[in-house]
Amino acid sequence: MSNTSKHAPNLMQTRRLARQRALQALYQWELNPGPVSGLLEQFLTTQDMENVDMEYFTELLRQSIALCKELDERLETYLDIPAAQLDPVERGILRLSAYELIRRLDIPYRVIISEAVALAKKFGAEDGHKFINAVLDKAVSDWRPHEGRNR
Question: How far apart are CA 135 and CA 113, in angstroms?
């Protein structure tokens, strides 16, 4: 019998929740830009952060905001419009995913794209997940050529 309870979240589940909360926090930051520290504090006190990989949530949020201009510039190679004109939810998903694809090489690109599509299905527009998938699929060929070559 396994030591893990059915109810104990695994790394994939806690990271999925971290991505969801990071997306929500990024969206909030878009509407009301301010210091990341205040946003983190607000989320810790107002959101259900149980079972969230807090270290990953903090990393995603801090880095996606700190690198947002660079991430947007890199993403625009695969967009027909400037990143600033994207729906804020889709822009947030793309920023989080771009950060992961570029800086978190320990996470397989398939996991990152799958999680991005799941976020888009949950929080985005009706067909937003197709757009997210198409953009990230093109980007991964350039950003992770060795990994993407055998897709």
Answer: 10
Token pair 């996991």: residue:
111
pTM reported for the whole predicted model? 0.89
Tokens of 145: 């050529």
CA distances from 85 to 3, 9, 73 (A): 48, 37, 13
Per-residue pLDDT tens digits for 35-74: 999 999 988 899 888 899 999 999 999 999 999 999 999 9
Q: Is 129 in contact with 117 (CB distance < 8 Å)?
A: yes
Closest CA to 97 of 108, 87, 86: 108
Name which of 126, 128, 140, 137 is nearest 90 in CA terms: 128
Question: Residue 107: what residue type?
Answer: I
Alpha helices in 1-151 (DSSP H): 11-31, 36-46, 54-66, 68-76, 88-103, 109-123, 128-143, 145-148
